[in-house]
Amino acid sequence: MKTHIYKSKVFDMACRQFDKAADLINLDPSLIKRTKYPKRCMVVTCPVRMDNGQVELFEGYRVQHHLSLGPTKGGLRFHPAVTVGEVAGLSMWMSWKCALAGLPYGGAKGGICVDVSKLSITELERLSRRYMQEMIPFVGPNTDIMAPDMGTNEQVMAWMMDTYANHIGNSIPAIVTGKPVSLGGSQGRREATGHGVAYVVKSYMNDLRIPLDQATAVIQGFGNVGSEAALALNAFGIKVIAISDVHGGYYNANGIDVQNALEYSKIHKSLKGWKEADIISNEALLRLKCTVLIPAALERVITEDNVRQLNCRILAEAANGPTTNGADEILKENDNITTIPDIFCNSGGVIVSYFEWVQDLQSLFWTREEVLRKMHNILDRAKMEIETQKQKYGYSRREAALTVGIQKVVNAKSVRGLFP
Ligand code: NAD
What we know:
By secondary structure, the chain is an alpha/beta fold. It is built from 14 helices and twelve strands. It has a seven-stranded mixed sheet. Strands 1-2-4-3-5 form a five-stranded mixed sheet.
């Protein structure tokens, strides 16, 4: 089989990672392509009435990667550069991430090609609802469950849930996760991804015997994940010395006032114009000397061109796919940098999304403490599996995480067999 529709740098990157991992575990050739390529892909056209009365069309995608372990699960991204190939690559990573964490899901991802900064709130609502309307035949609490990703948030999830519920005729909170708590969202979900990132960073700092109060963090991307990671790192006593968003970066060697930056960015919808730190470019920010560097924005920001200039002890991949294959090969040879791979590092988000789904299905809700404790348990177990695999076979940490995740998907496919 040949596939052309997914052609993109992100999909190629996910495929190259998969091919290497499949080689390492000597994956049965009859299972390689079945495990690698997405099961389904939907492309929809969303007509939306704009505030000026005109109708504009937006292209939307949803890729469901595999169905062998349960319903599919994954975020929805609103970004002007989204392509179906990017979404397909992200859906593959979701599959390995869910399997690594032991969640009963296949991976999925969705996206709409749109610049949300150019939409009014009412246009954003109509677009979100329209996308869900178009996707109704393909999603459901036992089929495919969406969640926030770049450019989407709790409010978008609330509109999507409401659209689906209106269609079905009764409230179905389990159709999406990352909803407001008042609608059946989970305590701890909003901060789960960033908190999970900080938790695993702390865990590796402990392994490396780095005192937390002497550690510094640099974060690219100050959205949901980056800002929550900053708050959690601060709470663990780790100083955040630089942050950034799409408009640029901010540096203060004495420590960024994260709360102040968060309040400013909520009011101004970005950090642009924030005066409490020195201005620095996003590219220079990646090269700052620090204990932990956290890319928390887009894919492919650490490349063969800048990887040798990284000046961190730990690279914690909060974003999905921030490191290109070429850069990864170079990092693999660098014992001075501990890389915490994306499919593990940012998995706190989908772990708590899973908890939200479980709570919605049983209409029984847990406290924030319960949620975070259960998330920590899963992260600790996944870390142990990765480190054991790494040690046993001499893999890099990324290879270890990928092979554990992929093997679990392959095992499910093997025992289920091929229907009919
Ligand atoms: P978000 O939209 O809330 O924030 C994204 C941030 O990145 C914003 O501050 C934006 O200005 C910044 N940004 C965008 N382009 C940039 C660029 N070129 N340079 C620097 N900064 C840039 O998105 P998010 O939900 O925080 O997601 C961030 C990353 O984390 C994505 O890779 C996403 O796939 C991943 N992720 C998110 C979740 C989640 O629960 N939201 C879970 C797992 C992984």
